[in-house]
Design goal:
- The chain is of the alpha/beta class.
- The protein has one domain: Vaccinia Virus protein VP39 (Rossmann fold).
- It is built from 9 helices and 7 strands, in the order H-H-E-H-E-H-E-E-H-E-H-H-E-H-H-E.
- The longest helix has 16 residues.
């Protein structure tokens, strides 16, 4: 295994995190940036377990609609189950670089922590632009994993663990180049907001509290380090938390841009 695989087990773990305080905060920021209005059609690229689709479908109403695209069967199953009673939502299997949707058919599009896994960013942005109507809004949220900071008494072990973790995706620091990539893809009025997700609580209600266990399991599954080392790394974080000394921080970025009118 190299990149993170969105199989049934991983998808369910991610789904559980969507009810956490930090992820609820993130969803609110993304939905505010989209500014969905009644009657609009919205495209969710990498829709995951369908939380955004459910909330946006309520905002666009019966005269609007939401289409979710994802490449994971497990994620699509969760999304369809969550939106089973919504007549204005559909989910289709597809890739971000070859979206199975018509040209000029959406008023807005979003992609939340998805493009960092996509090798061909230019192709993905071109596909989203193709799907948007003139003047349509695009909202992207991705993590700058190069900003990740976690307290440790063993920096060498921390570096080994995080080097393996960096293999879970394609772009460790996508936000650093995304403004230029948006411009190159023909988008206009690109803006960026950085949001700090920092905590001293090793709690599943925080992004840091969730991701520590996620990193531990990924490193074990990757088999690039001994499992004992991954466990020792995570045990240190749990011990720090018990003493009230845990620290986690990472910068996540929200980009907004428009297709040419």
């Amino acid at each position: 295994m190299t990149q993170l695989e969105f199989d049934e087990e991983t998808s369910k773990r991610i789904e559980a995190s969507y009810s956490s305080r930090d992820v609820l905060r993130r969803r609110a920021l993304v939905r505010e940036a989209i500014g969905a209005a009644p009657g609009q059609r919205i495209l969710d690229v990498g829709c995951g377990p369908g939380f955004y689709a459910a909330e946006l479908a309520a905002e666009v109403g019966a005269d609007g609609g939401v289409t979710g695209v994802d490449g994971s069967d497990a994620m699509l199953a969760l999304a369809r189950r969550r939106n089973s009673e919504a007549a204005n939502v559909e989910f289709v299997e597809g890739d971000a670089t070859a979206l199975p949707v018509a040209d000029d058919s959406f008023d807005a599009a979003l992609s939340v922590q998805v493009l960092e896994y996509v090798a061909e960013i230019g192709e993905a942005l071109a596909e989203i632009r193709r799907a948007l109507r003139p003047g349509g809004r695009l909202v992207i949220w991705d993590v700058d994993w190069a900003t990740l900071s976690i307290r440790t008494a063993d920096p060498a072990r921390m570096r080994r663990v995080l080097d393996v973790w960096d293999e879970h995706l394609t772009h460790v620091s996508l936000p650093a180049t995304l403004t230029a990539r948006l411009r190159d893809a023909g988008f206009e009025d690109a803006t960026m907001e950085g949001h700090s997700f920092a905590t001293n609580e090793l709690s599943p209600d925080t992004y840091g509290g969730f991701i520590v266990g996620f990193i531990e399991q990924f490193v074990i599954d990757r088999e690039a380090l001994p499992a004992d080392e991954a466990h020792a790394w995570a045990d240190e974080q749990r011990e720090l938390a018990e003493r009230g000394e845990f620290y986690f921080a990472v910068i996540q970025s929200l980009f907004s841009a428009r297709a040419p009118a």
